[in-house]
Amino acid sequence: MATAVPVPALAPDGVREWARRVAALSPVLLVIALLLVPGGGGAEGGTGGTGTVADAASGLLVLICLVRVLRGGARPLTRTAAVVLGLPVLGICLAAITSNDPAASLPGVARYVQIFVLVPAAVLLTVRDRRDFAVVAWGLVGLALVQGAVGVAQYLTGTGASYMGEDIRAVGTFGPTDVMGMATVVSYGLVVVTGIALGSGPGRTRTAAMVCAGLLFVPLVLSFSRGAWIATVLACGAQLLLSGPRRAALVALAAGALGVVLVGGLGIGSEMVKERAASITQVTAAPDQSVTDRYTMWAAAGRMWASEPVTGVGLKGFPQYRDSNASLALSSGSDTAGAGAAFARQPLLSPHNMYLLVLSEQGLLGLLALVGSWLALLVGALRRHRLGADCALVATGLLGWQLIDFFYADIGGPSTVLMSVVLGLAAWWALGEVRRA
Question: Are 59 and 96 a contacting pair, CB within 8 Å?
Answer without folding.
Answer: no
